[in-house]
Amino acid sequence: MQLVKSEISTNTLNINVIGDLDAKGCRDIQPSIDELISSDTHQEIEVDLHQVRFMDSSGIGAIVYLYKRLVEQQRTMRLENVEGQPLKIITLLRIGQAIPVNIASSNEYL
What we know:
The chain is about 40% helix and about 30% strand. By secondary structure, it is α/β, with parallel strands linked by helices. Strands 1-2-3-4-5 form a 5-stranded mixed beta sheet. Strand 3, helix 2 (about 55-70) and strand 4 form a beta-alpha-beta unit.
C-alpha cells in the first residue's frame, strides 16, 4: 500500500492510494497521513481511490481520521474515482453525507 502525492495547484493536492485499504495497508500509510495533516499546507485534498480494490473498517477509519483532522484545520477533502467494493461500503455507511464522493464510472457525487 502506498500514497502518491501530486500537486494539482497551489491550493489542491491529489493523493493517489495504491493497494488495499485494510488493516495492514492502513498501518503502512499512517505516517504519511500524519505528515499530510501536520506538514502539508494545501487547502484542498483529493483522495483518489481508483486503484483501491478492497476496503475494510480500517480503511474507513483512516479516511474518517484524515477527514476529521483536515476539518479541524479548516481544510477540505473529497474522495475521487470510487468504484467496486470500496464504493459499496462507502455507500452503505453513508460516508458521502459528510465527505464528497465522486463515483468513478459516472463522475457524479454521492
